[in-house]
Amino acid sequence: MRPTTLLYLTLLVFGCSCSPTGEDPAGQPANGAPSSGTPAPQRQGIIVAFGDSLTAGFGVDPGESYPDYLQRELDRRGHSYEIINEGVSGDTSDTGLVRTDIVASRKPDLVIVAFGGNDGLRVLAVDRMKLNLRRMITKLQRSGIQVVLAGIKLPPNYGADYRVPFEQAFVDLAEELGVAFLPFLMEGVWDKPGSMQADGIHPTAQGHERIALNVLEVLEPLLKAKQKEPAAAY
Fold this sequence. Notes:
44% of the residues lie in helices and 12% in strands. By secondary structure, it is an alpha/beta fold. The model is unreliable at 1-36 (pLDDT under 50). It has a single domain (3-12, 43-223), classed as SGNH hydrolase (Rossmann fold).
């Protein structure tokens, strides 16, 4: 296999590209599991999962995206929040920024921001990605929304000149803007047998389940802190 071919395949593992058929799974419901007939629990707030195909759940059945697993795990642990899936396959930080106002209009309590995979795949300018994410997060914060930032890490094949500033951009933004930070959304997924689809790009249901646990590790302390907040006086 030629070195350029190997590099391309490695890049794809970390990408969040659109479907080869052009299909867009963004319309999958966040709670796509079949109904059990049990009335849905009353929710005390909203959490939006905001990102690309890693959030949208491309290639898996309805109910198997990471936001779906996150919803079920939150319910199991007694956190009465509704998860809304705002993932769109193929989104870069550019297109995600355009959708930020739509996300804010849902008036969520928290937003999980998970962009960058497609920026990295296409080797887009790190400074532009960082600016887009900064604007995205700042817009949400100005609307009174708490943010969790999920980072992406790149393989060594990218070369340190691109890879190091790319990964550092997420670290810098989390510190600069004071947001909760998950260093690598795909931790324990991209290199684990059974966790990636045959395309080498998107997680399987097993992979999405692990991503949900990764997110929950950062998210749950925020929810517990909210439970301890004193009720607003009227």
